[in-house]
Design a protein that fits this description.
The chain is mainly alpha-helical. Helix content is 54%, strand content 10%. It is built from six helices and three strands, in the order H-H-E-H-H-E-E-H-H. Strands 1-3-2 form a three-stranded antiparallel β-sheet. The radius of gyration is 29 Å and the shape is rod-shaped.
């Protein structure tokens, strides 16, 4: 039995250059680029949505350009749909967009 069997040259190496080759910075860069592409393809395959369905109050305030008080008022009057989980209030992006497109919300919002 060979003394250092784990140092044996692999069978698929065609020459000494492949066996003795050092890992270079270029090799690491190529590996990184390939790894990032593989990860991105895997994420795209999962159907990851760029837009979140449920938004927090801060995101809704930025989207609708409302103050915290105005958003609370609209929520308390039932003019804007929401779900509460613990102490965090969530808003469904699709429902908010539908509400903004409807004329009913504009009329109700003007009267507030």
């Amino acid at each position: 039995m060979e003394k250092h069997q784990y140092l044996r040259k692999p069978d698929n190496c065609t020459g000494p250059a492949e066996w003795d080759r050092l890992l270079t910075v270029r090799d690491l860069i190529e590996f990184r680029e390939q790894l990032l592409m593989d990860i991105q393809q895997a994420l795209n395959g999962r159907g990851v949505s760029p837009e979140k369905q449920w938004l927090k109050a801060k995101e809704i305030r930025e989207m609708l350009r409302l103050s915290a008080g105005k958003l609370h008022y609209l929520r308390a009057k039932g003019l804007i749909p929401f779900k509460k989980l613990g102490n965090i209030t969530y808003y469904d992006r699709q429902k908010i967009n539908e509400l903004m497109q409807s004329g009913d919300f504009r009329n109700k919002f003007r009267s507030v």
